[in-house]
């Protein structure tokens, strides 16, 4: 049984007071109590009021009262003047001879227009604004990330350069912050405008939906469409993104620039110096990924990935479950957030280590073997994949992943010619500061560098170094000066190139034995994994 409270909620009250409704004016579509019937008639004396018991009410459109002829309701619409008119207006009044139509038809047309506009705003315009809003939020995130990366790079360079250049980097940080605020202010302003318009459109939709339910012609007739106002997105002003660029002219000049600011120092030639030799439990160190300035994750000839410091102390171990030593990790790298990722050769997936446990990060297409990987500054992951084509030939590709989505495939030069040699060995990769992808193609015995679009910029075959044995490129890394360092397995040395592929020098005086994995720490020192199971830490730059 309903309670007194629920019964009270179901009672329909008088439109003029709070008493229960007993009567209804069909003419004005107003609910009335017995007391308010007289008040209602007195308020609109000029009009005829059809008062009936509430249960006998008829729901119908309410025609407005004519302003020129009291007591008359406007039941037509003057098409010439576009306003409601009564019978007397048409017969003998100011609208005599004008073409008219029933006001109900006008009402229905306007409601159809409201419904059409509402559908367009909800189904087309708002989603477009929401997509733009998501793009702006993504741009803001990327802008923050890129400026954070610039700051990180400038800090690395600060450590490499002498104390006298602190003022240069202070200037760089100041300009970077200024550009950051300027760019984010532009994006934030546009972001705010987009969100405001979305809010306005949602309010418009609510008002339109309310009008669609309205039975009052005067309310519907005053409707003004806002579709034209909203259908074109506000003009988007793209932000200007400065880049942090450094260049080296060997023995002459070292420079760094951001925006219009440029600083120049001299770089002196100097012999490389062996800082440390770190023994490991591996027979061969395949991969090195430096952590800060004194530690590194390393991978060798078993199923474990270990973290050691420069003194050889074991800090951490990640065990990959394999079968009889098979199916271990294929490659290791660090994400932009500092998390370790690796290729699980058993499941052919990319996994990430979080809180001491590994979990799947990327699942790749079937029938492709994952060989190596590398993390870019933007957060993308480059994966060397190998598969066998219809002619039973190996096909080597570098796939760029953005999250779980394939963003780019690098494998041919646009004319159908393969960029990488179609053989079995792995491709080693490193991204340079200018976005180039530097690849050690062990099958072709050369280094190939492609730009962001996958276009080949140059190849290096090792001949300028004049080594005794054939060039045997394997591990590859780039430093904060945009130099490219390549491990030459056959000649027990490192080749150092500038970012345009010009040979600078060889590091061959630090006792390297079949060098393999390479990484650069935050102090600008090279960590070189060797086939002996040792890691050599080398200082190869001297800045004045």
UniProtKB/TrEMBL annotation:
Keywords: Coiled coil, Metal-binding, Repeat, Zinc, Zinc-finger. GO terms for molecular function: ubiquitin protein ligase activity; zinc ion binding. GO terms for biological process: protein monoubiquitination. Residues 126-153 form a coiled coil. PROSITE patterns: NHL, ZF_BBOX. This is Tripartite motif-containing protein 3-like. SMART domains: BBOX (SM00336). Pfam families: zf-B_box. It comes from Crassostrea virginica (Eastern oyster).
